[in-house]
Amino acid sequence: MRVLVLGATGFIGGQIARAAIREGMDVHGFRRRPGSVGAIGDLPVTWHDGDLADGCMLDEALQGCDVLFHAAGYCPESAYSIRDANRKGAAQMRVVLRAAQRANVKRVVYTSSLTTIGAPPAGSDRLADERDGYLPGSTSNSYYESKWVMEFEALRAHQAGLPVIILCPTAVFGPGDLKPSTSKILLMVAKKQMPVGVDVETNIVDGRDVALAHVRAATAGEPGERYIVGGHNLNVADALREAARLVGVREPRGALSLKAVTRLLRFAEFFRLPVPATMRGMPYWAALNADKGMRTFGYTPRPFEETVVDTVGWFRENGYF
């Protein structure tokens, strides 16, 4: 099976490429910067250089491909221009999805976001799951809004006949997080830069489990469906304390309440201070029910402790501290 991975030089895309090769797939990667190999320079990937805004470049890379893994969704650099973020996100998705239609791929596996999962119905005693959708306009967060728009474009393409499967990873940690993104929290713990935690619960998953789910979605996923790809529901403050013990550094001394974090984020927004997208959404973090994805793709989330040890070890081996 020949597959094209968009975002192969990034964290999740790189892990998808690694898992796909392990499953015997012929993996092609699409990259914006010629020569870049991300964290997968050791893999036999066939590289294609280009820009996601250029449908012709995508057409060439998609020739002969059975599956397109789209793990390069637009991410707004700022929290403030929602209209601009929505426009750019929708435009990128349309270019990619139209190229996939022209190539007649058998499956498009799109990496969406946990932010497109909304709260369960009021008065419900269940955890949020795939039935619950983000309500557009309910936040002033360009990341949340643009991810909803992009997922909407994916569903619209499915209705037009393109077999799109949507995966919504939760908070992803793991080896190979080059930039780093979410895993930066563990790096900060290892570098003794995390004095306090946050008293909020969220779902944490290893990037390698996310990648396995993507690869299995190419055959086991139902087009038009979306799946939460999650791991363990954990209190963030408790998880950081456990990470510190595993790494052998001093534990964060306390935990900020969610109300205090919300005030700090509003302060940052007022003064237009840079805040990572994953942190801007913290007031909306919650435990999630990821059973559907685990059942469909047949994976068992690896222990959080394993994720911590492997992630920090990868950062150390690659000179991050």
Helix content: 40-55%
Number of domains: 1
Distance between the termini: 39 Å
CATH superfamily: NAD(P)-binding Rossmann-like Domain
Task: Compute the CA-based radius of gyration.
Answer: 19 Å
CATH architecture: 3-Layer(aba) Sandwich
Mean pLDDT: 94
Enumerate the strands of the largest sheet in spatial order, edge to edge or round the barrel: 3-2-1-4-5-6-10
State which percent range the strand residues make up: 15-25%
CATH topology heading:
Rossmann fold
Number of helices: 11
SSE ordering: EHEEHEHEHEEHEEHEEHEHHHH
Largest sheet: 7 strands, parallel
Structural class category: alpha/beta
Structure description:
The protein is globular. It has 321 residues and is of the alpha/beta class. The longest helix has 22 residues, at 82-103. Strand 1, helix 1 and strand 2 form a beta-alpha-beta unit. It has a seven-stranded parallel beta sheet with strand order 3-2-1-4-5-6-10, with helices on both faces. The protein has a three-stranded mixed beta sheet with strand order 7-9-11. The termini are far apart. The protein is built from eleven helices and twelve strands. The chain has helices at residues 11-22, 55-62, 82-103, 142-159, 184-190, 207-220, 236-247, 258-270, 277-280, 291-297, 304-317, and strands at 2-6, 26-31, 46-49, 67-70, 107-111, 164-169, 171-173, 196-199, 201-206, 226-229, 232-235, 254-257. Helix 6 packs across helix 10 (291-297). The chain has a single domain, classed as Rossmann fold (3-Layer(aba) Sandwich).
